[in-house]
Amino acid sequence: MRRRQFLGSLAAVGLHPGLSFAQPSSIRLIAAAHRQQILPVGYPDTEMWSFGASFPGTALRARQGDRLGVTVENQLPQPTSVHWHGLRLENAMDGVPGLTQAPIGEGASFDYEFALPDAGTYWYHSHAKSMEQIERGLYGPLIIDETDPPDVDQDITLMIDDIRLEQDGSLSAFDNFHDLSHAGRIGNLWVANGQIDPAYPVKRGERVRLRLINAANARVFTVGMQGFDGSIVALDGMPLKDPQVLPEELILAPAQRVDLIVDVTTDDEEAFLITFERDGGYAIAHFPVSGPSKATRSERPLLPPNPDFPIDLANARTATLLIEGGAMGGMRAARVDGQELGARELAGRGLFWALNGVAGRPETPLLDLSLGESARIGMANNTAFPHGMHLHGMHFSEVLADGSLGPLRDTILLNPQETREIAFQAHNPGNWLFHCHMLAHHQGGMGTWIRVSA
Ligand code: C2O
Ligand code: CU
């Protein structure tokens, strides 16, 4: 059929080519083992666990205001679940075994379906035995497009990670007490979208939206862009009211995201995403640059805001969170299921960290809030290690030294001996996990929760 005839026949039955039907699109996501080359060519490949037979998993993309339906089928040799990191979704879909759902057993499946009120850069990952399952590859990007997206030439998502592999391609063993009690599982190889230093061709003068997602188990990345100029337009999915000029160094704690809108300004043949290490900078990804020099766009990029839930600092309920444990400082004792245990007994159970003297998720929430109430949590990191604290279901702002509120985030980094305060409006009812996203720390006891009652 020629194009004109085809359009003619559509018109005849009254269908519009852009018509979409009302059912939420349901995606089938199979969690299973697959093999992928991760080490350089010439080395053996690696058995990964993944969503959709690729590492990272199937890229999920939807439009703000739509609903997303995903049926997760578990073909792994362990129970699993999926958490939609950063989405302010309904609690029953949050994917936390023992808090919002039962784990998805071997051979079983679970239907996730939820509304998408916010645009932005998110990710999804296993939330069962996550120190092992995320390291094995059970994560993927989740991009929610603005109804009116900014004008860019390319939109590139880079999930950066470090994984710990052996020479034979296998993942190093997981039962490692050193990881649990120190910084967590730090890798020996960094990858972007599952590859060592992948290439993303760009043209001179092009405007690129870059979405960086730190999917690492425990590694705090310090990254920089070389060959680009531009700005940070969003953090952890949420648009900044005032985009910041792209700094030389950007710190990304595990689970944090940053959206950049940058122009290709270099005259060189290549531009880079660099990780700054103790001994210098290394490319995590590179961008072959082609085309003649070209003027860049002059308009300043800005993302439309997501729904806002203002924080009432003056009338907020308050809580404090004391972070203790780990090697080089440690803790003498902590409560587990209401019972006081000494360090030796705790270690015997794989517990090395405590929040307010409790190791592991407590029976009662850190805060019991009514819908619409504001809360502030002062946190003190009394340990020798950095921690990236993540709140499910709601974004928070940091209360800055001058009393003003920082940008919205869902994960905040606390360096050793640092104190920080966060505040949020309890706008989303349910039981929400609040934990360290250094996954060995969460497994080793660093998790609590917050209840919001409707
Ligand atoms: Cu990204 Cu509780 O997780
Ligand atoms: Cu931690």
What report would you give on this structure?
The structure is a single chain. The chain has 454 residues and is mainly beta. The chain folds into two domains: 3-290, Sandwich (Immunoglobulin-like), CATH 2.60.40; 317-453, Immunoglobulin-like (Sandwich), CATH 2.60.40. The protein has helices spanning 3-13, 130-135, 177-181, 343-348, 439-443, and strands at residues 26-36, 46-51, 60-63, 67-74, 82-85, 109-115, 120-126, 139-145, 154-163, 189-192, 202-203, 207-214, 221-226, 228-235, 238-245, 250-252, 257-264, 270-277, 280-290, 317-325, 333-336, 339-342, 353-355, 367-370, 374-381, 387-391, 396-399, 405-409, 411-414, 419-425, 430-436, 447-453. The strands form seven sheets. The protein has a six-stranded mixed sheet, with no helix packed on it. Strands 23-20-25-30-27-28 form a six-stranded mixed sheet, with no helix packed on it. It has a five-stranded mixed sheet with strand order 11-19-18-13-16, with no helix packed on it. The longest helix is centred in the N-terminal third of the chain and has 11 residues, at 3-13. The N and C termini lie far apart (57 Å). Residues 1-17 have low confidence and may be disordered. The structure holds CU-O-CU linkage and copper (II) ion (CU). Copper (II) ion binds next to loops.
